[in-house]
Each structure stands twice: as structure tokens, then as C-alpha cells.
């Protein structure tokens, strides 16, 4: 395997692993938020706020993986 192929593989693995965790996390956050709303519909605003904040923090991990992959690509 030459250096370009190894570099491309490392970029692909960085994005694959870096996006897998946030994808699972965001799915679980949405699932639990819908479950909470089903149990207590009056708490919609507080559940929604907590859900959006949690999704933003989980998505930040995927953005960090993207930044690392871009650094690998252009260096």
C-alpha cells in the first residue's frame, strides 16, 4: 500500500468512526425525548430545550472528526 492509499484510508476511517458515535447518540437522544414527551406532554418546552442542546453537543464530536479528516487530507 502506497502513502496516498494509506492517507485516503485513514481519512475515510476517521470520518466513519467519528460519525458513528454521534449518529447513534443523536438517535438515542431523539428516542428518549419522544418517550419523555409521551409520558409527560406538559414538559414539552424543557424537553425540547434539553434535546436540542444534547444534539448540538453530540454533533460537535462529528464536526471535530470532520476537521481532523480535513487536516489529514490537506497536509
The gist of it:
This protein is an all-alpha fold. The protein contains two helices and no strands.
Written description of the protein model:
The structure is a single chain. With 75 residues, this protein is mainly alpha-helical. The chain has one domain: F1FO ATP Synthase (Up-down Bundle). It is 91% helix and 0% strand. The chain has two helices and no strands. The protein has helices at residues 3-39, 44-74. Helix 1 runs antiparallel to helix 2. It is elongated, with a radius of gyration of 17 Å. The two termini are 19 Å apart.
Throw out a few tags for this protein.
single chain, 75 residues, mainly alpha, F1FO ATP Synthase, 2 helices, elongated
CATH class reads Mainly Alpha
Number of strands: 0
Rough outline = elongated
Taken as a percent bin, the fraction of beta residues is: under 5%
Helix-strand pattern: HH
Point out poorly predicted stretches.
none
Distance between the termini: 19 Å
Largest sheet: none
- Overall CATH architecture: Up-down Bundle
Number of domains: 1
Helix content: over 70%
* Secondary structural class: mainly alpha
- The pLDDT mean sits at 94
CATH superfamily: F1F0 ATP synthase subunit C
